[in-house]
Amino acid sequence: MNADQLCGLLAEPSRLRTYSAVVLGATTPDQVAGSTGLPAPVVVKALQRLTKGGLITAAGDGLQADEAAFKDAVRESRPERVPLDPDPDRDGVLRSFIRDGRLTHFPTYPEKLRILLEYLVTSFEPGRRYPEPEVNEILNRWHPDHAALRRELVEARLLDRASSIYTRR
C-alpha cells in the first residue's frame, strides 16, 4: 500500500476513528462503537473498508491494526538512495555532511574534510581554467561560504591557483 492509498483509507473521519480505536485496544465492533461514539452500522462499514484495505485484520483474538503499514508506505514512496561514492565508508562520510545536494557543515576531522573536498572538486573539469567568479558560483551551489571552500581546495592541492585563475589537477 502506498502513502496515497493509506491516506485515502483514513481520510473519512469514521474510518480514522475506527482505526484509532483498534490501535488503542478495541478488539470487537461493539468496543469500537463504544469508544468512538459511532453508530454500529457505521463502525461495521468502516471496519469492512479498513479490512479490505489491509489496515485491520480480524483474528481469533479480535481486531488488530496493522501499524507497520505506515512505515511500509513511507519506505515504498522513498526514492532509491543513490550512493555519493561507491566506497561505503566514504559514502557514509559524505552523507554526514551533504543533504539535498548541499554541504550542511564542514568536517572537523582532517580525514573527513579530505574525503569531502575530493568529492567537491569533481564539480570542476580537470585541466580547465576557471576564473575566480566562476569558481565562487560553483562552490556557492554547495555552501554559502565559497571562500572557505575555495581556500580548502587550494590548501589540499586539489585546485591550483595562479593570478585568480583556478585549475583542477
Helix amount: 40-55%
> From the helix content, strand content and strand pairing, which structural class follows?
alpha+beta
Strand content: 5-15%
What is the element string, with H for helices and E for strands?
Answer: HHHHEEHHEEHEHHEE
Q: What is the overall number of helices?
A: 9
What integer is the average pLDDT? 94
Taking the sheet with the most strands, its summary is:
3 strands, antiparallel
> Could you give the distance between the termini?
50 Å
Widest β-sheet, arrangement of strands:
5-7-6
Radius of gyration (Å): 27 Å
| Poorly predicted ranges | none
Structure summary, number of beta strands? 7
Shape: rod-shaped
Domains (count) = 2
Can you give me a brief rundown of this structure?
With 169 residues, this protein is of the alpha+beta class. The protein folds into 2 domains: 3-77, Orthogonal Bundle (Arc Repressor Mutant, subunit A); 88-168, no CATH class. It is 54% helix and 14% strand.
Explain this structure.
This protein has 169 residues and is α+β, with helices and mostly antiparallel strands. It folds into two domains: 3-77, Winged helix-like DNA-binding domain superfamily/Winged helix DNA-binding domain (Arc Repressor Mutant, subunit A); 88-168, no CATH class. Helices cover 54% and strands 14% of the residues. It is built from nine helices and seven strands. It has helices at 3-10, 13-23, 29-36, 40-53, 68-77, 88-97, 110-120, 132-140, 146-155; strands at 56-59, 62-65, 98-99, 102-103, 129-131, 159-162, 165-168. The strands form three sheets. It has a three-stranded antiparallel sheet with strand order 5-7-6. Strand 1 (56-59) and strand 2 (62-65) form a beta hairpin.
